[in-house]
Design a protein that fits this description.
It is a single chain. This protein has helices at 16-19, 48-57, 79-90, 101-110, 114-128, 135-140, 148-155, and strands at residues 8-12, 26-27, 32-36, 67-71, 95-99. By secondary structure, it is α/β, with parallel strands linked by helices. Helix 4 (101-110) runs antiparallel to helix 5 (114-128).
């Protein structure tokens, strides 16, 4: 049964402020990074600031009416490419630790409650990548998206 209610579903990719932070093993201050899976699959990291913009813009944009908006950043990068960008910006090497998909699956199976099962499932999705082409979306919602490079500049220590 249709309610007749107008909706917009925002489906952002992985937030750079979360997945490229110490909370999930990306410790740029100490040049250490935990990588889920091989680290080769590309992800369209997006800033929460950009998602907030899309949320506000969707209130008045007719392209958002009864639509699901797949949201990503301006370019897709693998976690290993992001680490390389940090290494270049900071002129130092990162210590990289890989967590295999098999280890994540074992963690999920051994979890004793639904919340504990959620984290390895999210990390497995991250390992698989999420490459979103934003070309059409940016024609409907013009905006200069925050890039991983912008985020790196924002997170680098002030000299």
């Amino acid at each position: 049964m249709k309610s007749g209610m107008v909706y917009t579903i925002l489906r952002p990719s992985f937030f750079m402020e979360v997945w490229l932070s110490p909370a999930l093993g990306f410790d740029y201050a100490n040049a250490k990074a935990q990588v889920y899976g091989t680290g080769h699959n590309k992800i369209s990291f997006i800033s929460l600031v950009d998602v907030a913009h899309f949320a506000v813009a969707s209130l008045s944009n007719p392209h958002a009416k009864n639509a699901t908006l797949e949201l990503g950043g301006p370019e897709a990068l693998s976690p290993l490419e992001v680490i390389h960008l940090y290494e270049q910006a900071e002129h130092r090497s990162f210590k990289v630790q890989h967590v295999s998909e098999e280890a994540l699956e074992k963690q999920r199976i051994e979890a004793t409650d639904p919340l504990q099962k959620t984290f390895p499932a999210l990390m497995t999705d991250y390992a698989h990548g999420d490459d979103i082409d934003m070309t059409a979306m940016l024609k409907q919602f013009p905006r200069k998206l925050i890039s991983v490079q912008d985020y790196i500049q924002h997170t680098m220590p002030i000299a």
